[in-house]
Write a structure and sequence with these properties.
With 475 residues, this protein is an alpha/beta fold. It contains 15 helices and 19 strands. The chain folds into 2 domains: 276 residues, Aconitase, domain 3 (2-Layer Sandwich); 152 residues, Aconitase, domain 3. It is globular and about 55 Å long. The structure holds iron/sulfur cluster.
């Protein structure tokens, strides 16, 4: 029977199939942990006298509560003693249980969804979980990857499996040619705006079509990262040569890489496989996007107008954002710019922002911070001189971590401020009490940093290189 990518990976990991009475028991190939959602799980393990079942399939990093500024004396000023305690507790627990950990001394430390792919720990055909919603990022490699709660973190630590009902499958197909200045971030915001924040509930998404086939791994990770914002259980893209080129030579990729690639290729959705639902969009219809409300589904093309508020919730979102239906988001004054997070903090994102900021100055009224997703990216960006571009333009170049995506480390805005952010959630107060967040691509964030107002990146980007004219055959 023809099978989808999701079905194939699911079938490989079912330990006990589901019944009407019981969810399936699913084996977990990789468990990623960080300082926020693991301490309580380790405490439960200790209380019950349990050990970690597969430390070799568990990988730890510190990212959420870590300061992004270093004091002149070299110390790291945590925002609260509790934040420091979280980090110390993770480091102690991981050491106790023999879990590979990327702490302050590791050149691979970084946001959990950035550093694991960089190490090649994230691989096609895996099941991957983490106590963080944006674990869906790893679906870019053709893995079933999803976020779990603290209690489930404990379960997976103890038995390396999880109880789960099989979701339905949804194909999101986008074919065609993307317009100038349209990025993977714009694509996923356009998808969420179309299907809604509940549109993916109960489904595993598979992104299909030439737009995703032509996309880099950095771009695929941006798209899959925000699958959760459409309510989906996970989002996936079939592994192909782009995936293999990215993984080749990384620390944890299989020794017989060619054999692994052959197997991974067999995971692609079979011809004739049926999805429970299919959504079709045209690449030509997608334009650079910005959000205007308080969830990622409240997103519009940057050159269009804010739609009418149909519900009380929509009206209150517009009130919170201090914006009005029928007006444009472009031209709105901004206070801060955040370029970072597990959505958009990889090399491709930093290069895109640097290309716009090179030789420019950030508006005096704007504070801009650029935060690489990992130590690896920071080093690579510095080797390319990108940090100098950001610093010369007037932005801050910070230490890697989640930073202003969530603000757990103290990187937040002031009440009432508007932040244009490359992160994934624009919920009220996520970047600080009373702070207004507008989600956008690194290109849009960088363009807005220069002007001090929300700006269409196409207005500052070099025009596309025209195709060679077809002169036809000589007469
Ligand atoms: S960058 Fe944001 S979404 Fe990503 S792991 Fe950190 S807090 Fe979660």
């Amino acid at each position: 029977m023809a099978k989808t990518l999701f079905d194939k990976v699911w079938d490989r990991h079912v330990v006990i199939p589901e019944t009407p009475e019981h969810p399936a028991t699913l084996y977990i190939g990789l468990h990623l942990i960080h300082e926020v959602t693991s301490p309580q799980a380790f405490s439960v393990l200790k209380e019950r006298g349990l050990s970690v079942r597969r430390p070799d399939r568990t990988l730890a990093t510190i990212d959420h509560s870590t300061p992004t500024l270093i004091s002149p004396d070299g110390s790291r000023p945590y925002v609260t003693p509790q934040a420091e305690r979280q980090v110390e507790t993770l480091l102690t627990n991981a050491k106790t249980h023999g879990i590979e950990t990327h702490g302050w001394d590791s050149p691979h430390r970084g946001i959990v969804h950035v550093m694991s792919p960089e190490l090649g720990a994230t691989q096609p055909g895996m099941t991957i979980v983490c106590g963080d919603s944006h674990t869906s990022t790893h679906g870019a490699f053709g893995a079933i990857a999803f976020g779990i709660g603290t209690t489930q973190v404990g379960h997976v630590l103890a038995n390396q499996s999880i109880l789960m009902r099989k979701p339905k499958t949804m194909a999101i197909e986008i074919n065609g040619t993307l317009g100038h200045g349209v990025t993977p971030k714009d694509i996923i915001l356009a998808i969420i705006a179309k299907i809604g924040i509940g549109g993916g509930t109960g489904y595993a998404l598979e992104y299909r079509g030439n737009v995703f086939e032509d996309m880099s791994m950095d771009g695929r990770m941006t798209v899959c990262n925000m699958s959760i914002e459409a309510g989906a259980r996970c989002g996936m893209i079939a592994p192909d040569q782009t995936t293999f080129d990215y993984l080749k030579g990384r620390k944890y990729t299989p020794k017989d890489f060619n054999a692994a690639c052959k197997d991974w290729l067999s995971l692609q959705t079979d011809k004739g496989a049926k999805f429970d639902k299919t959504v079709i969009m045209a690449a030509e219809d997608i334009r650079p996007m910005v959000t205007y409300g308080t969830h990622p589904g409240m997103a519009i093309a940057i050159d269009s107008l804010i739609p009418p508020a149909d519900t009380a919730a929509d009206k209150s979102a517009l009130d919170y954002m201090q914006v009005t239906s029928g007006t444009a988001m472009s031209g709105t004054k901004i206070n801060r710019v955040f370029i970072g997070s597990c959505t958009n903090s990889r090399m491709e994102d930093l290069r895109a922002a640097a290309n716009i900021l090179r030789g420019q100055s950030i508006a005096q009224s704007v504070t801009a911070i650029v935060v690489a997703g990992s130590e690896t990216i920071k080093a690579e960006a510095e080797a390319e001189g990108l940090h100098e571009v950001f610093l010369k333009a007037g932005a801050q170049w910070r230490e890697p971590g989640c930073s202003m995506c969530l603000g757990m480390n103290g990187d937040i805005g002031a009440p009432g401020e508007l932040i244009i952010s490359t992160s994934n959630r624009n919920f009220a107060g996520r970047q600080g009490p009373g702070v207004r967040t507008v989600l956008a691509s690194p290109e849009t964030a960088a363009a807005s940093a220069i002007t001090g107002i929300i700006t269409d990146p196409r207005s500052v980007m070099a025009p596309p290189i025209p195709c060679k004219p077809n002169l036809g055959s000589p007469a």
